Amino acid sequence: MAPSFDDGNSLFNFVVRDGNGVKGMVDSGLSTVPQAYMQPPIERIDKDRARKHGHPPIDLSKLGGPEHDEVAKQIVRAAENLGFFQVVNHGVPVDLLESLKDTAHDFFSLPAEKKAVYRDDVSPTPLVKYGTSFVPQKEKALEWKDYISMQYTNDAEALQHWPEEIRDVSLEYLRTSMSMVRKLLQVLLENLGVKPEDSMIDVLVDKKMVNMNYYPTCPNPDLTVGVGRHSDMGTLTILLQDGIGGLYVKIEDDSEFGKKGEWVEIPPVPSALVINVGDMVQVLSNGKYKSAEHRVRTTRTKSRVSIPIFTMPNATAKIAPLPEVVEKDGNTLYKEFVLADYMKNFFSNAHDGKKSLDFAKINSA
Ligand code: OGA
Ligand code: NI
């Protein structure tokens, strides 16, 4: 029996505690958005005011060929300004991208009990977590999103612990993405004057996580957000989005990409993947590369799926701006920290734009 969604407690119990998710709430028949999901006006997304990001996707098949330098420049420019770009000829088979989206829809269509076994406090494995919103206990307004998150340690553990319905495509996605991620990091590091050894890149992408995000249809997209303003905490994120759209990035400084403070939409491009710079790359580059602030709107008629791969160093890693960069810059913007401490701060606060980076800033309290 669906509870009254006007009552905050029974809504929380149904959606969060019992694992029915936003999907369960929507399926129970909802004609308006419950109070708990109403964003304050300042966080609402006016889709008519956002431009589409017009840059064509970067063709990664040209890396290593005669046009290598030009392509490398495009990657660097995007990472320095917007922190977001799209790539094609990325090495992930296009039919796998289609299967991933279909598989995500199938997974979230399973009965709630099937997904709820992976809720944080009851999951049979620390590698898999099913949840809704970001930190529901702390958020003033909840995000209109359910997700499942799968940490990668090795193939054997993934095969053993990841949900079997989504395991094989997710592993294949991870397997076929990683050489692209390494090439991108190589380009970004070389541009900083660092000779990237394989071992250094190994450290930067030591931990990997595949998520599937599900944004159910929403009766009032103007009042809600799918994901609130945030940056990703890790190294690079690879994101597969479907054709629905609604992913927005904030422009940090006036540039060829637009005016400071403006939000641009990263439009769906068939067979492309979206890449975004995470907080760790901003720190390592001493602020040269921008970890982009982004958010997702909800839609009325069709549910949206997206499938990110998050890469990051090991939790025990010590992170600080690269010495080569600090030397050249003559100053350092970020202090050295242990990644576990950064993560603890990141995952215990509601999304709030790029506030996560304050943790690493030198002159902040
Ligand atoms: C995320 C995210 C964007 C999207 O999962 O961190 O920003 O399009 N997702 O779903
Ligand atoms: Ni994100």
TrEMBL record:
Keywords from the named record: Dioxygenase, Iron, Metal-binding, Oxidoreductase
Superkingdom, natural source: Eukaryota
Pfam families: 2OG-FeII_Oxy, DIOX_N
Record keyword Iron present: yes
Cofactor: L-ascorbate
InterPro entries: DIOX_N (IPR026992), IPNS-like_FE2OG_OXY (IPR044861), IPNS-like_sf (IPR027443), Oxoglu/Fe-dep_dioxygenase_dom (IPR005123)
Domain Fe2OG dioxygenase: 196-313
GO molecular function annotation: dioxygenase activity; metal ion binding
One GO process term, biological-process aspect: coumarin biosynthetic process
Family: Belongs to the iron/ascorbate-dependent oxidoreductase family.
Matches recorded under PANTHER family: FERULOYL COA ORTHO-HYDROXYLASE 2-LIKE (PTHR10209:SF753), OXIDOREDUCTASE, 2OG-FE II OXYGENASE FAMILY PROTEIN (PTHR10209)
Name of the protein: Scopoletin 8-hydroxylase
Native organism: Gossypium hirsutum
Name of encoding gene: LOC107936166
